[in-house]
Amino acid sequence: MSEQTTDVIIIGSGPAGYTAAIYLGRAGYRPVVIAGALTPGGQLVNTTEVENFPGFPDGIMGPDLMDAMRKQAERFGAEIVYDDVVSADVQGDSKHVVLDGGDTYTARAVIVATGSQVRKLGVPGEAEYSGRGVSYCATCDGFFFRGKPIVVVGGGDSALTEADFLSRFGSSVTVIHRRDTFRASRILVDRAEKNPKIDFRMNAVVERVNGDDESGAHSVMIRDTVTGDTTEIPANGVFVAIGHTPATEFLHGALQLDEHGYITVDGASTRTSVPGVFAAGDVVDGVYRQAISAAGMGCRAALDAQAYLTEQA
Description:
The chain is of the alpha/beta class. It contains 6 helices and 19 strands. The strands form 5 sheets. Strands 1, 2, 5, 6, 7, 8 and 19 form a 7-stranded mixed sheet that branches. Strands 10-17-11-12-13 form a 5-stranded parallel sheet. Strands 14-15-16 form a 3-stranded antiparallel sheet, with no helix packed on it. The longest helix is centred in the last third of the chain and has 22 residues. The relative contact order is 0.18. It catalyses: [thioredoxin]-dithiol + NADP(+) = [thioredoxin]-disulfide + NADPH + H(+). Its cofactor is FAD.
């Protein structure tokens, strides 16, 4: 166990965290990135080909993109620590972060870029065909299912927005919802109901994702929650849209959150409810959740943190 003092602690190592580290490192600060013990690099390390990140006309593998960002951050002096934060005392001028291994880091500013975790179905075949038919991002993966049958699981605004978007690509889109009414906004429900390519299976839950090693997912087995009957629905694309959970547990209520658990910030800035603490990426953004928007917010967090440190000097 050790204690270390630095200028800025960045908690999280996705596009937001690494971008913040690049900017702060170039500005002459000594950012320490607490990258996580199991999945440094955020959700992109579990993503195959990324085709919509600017600068890569032929696409890039998610892990390769995050590895390049990490190396760039290290080039400018960032220290990467592969451990998890278990507690954070962010009140006062000195912020203290305790890691799972027992080490403690102290800094004058903290950037929280821990992202959010997708809520999963937890059914057989979901993990096996993740990235090979099962997806959690329509914007990222819809293009791959052009002319193929698609299902969307969920009944909120995200699910119906994704269903409408995916109808541009799929031969058909079937929305599977466990209740008999939607939680989504009326305007989104009306739009989906008027879309000739979208069908609905209400009072139904996914029991299993079927597929094979060669082609990936090819269907889902659903169960009617009223009758108990099971039906197999063709689906090369299975988009799960049942929500996200922001990774804020380690804060133990230290920062103000909105009703959905996302960290609230001051207007277009990344300033949180605690001076000297900034937040960026999917832990703030419950709408866009894109690598490029997270990276942009990481830049803003670095500049906000730099301004704060200059004022405190």
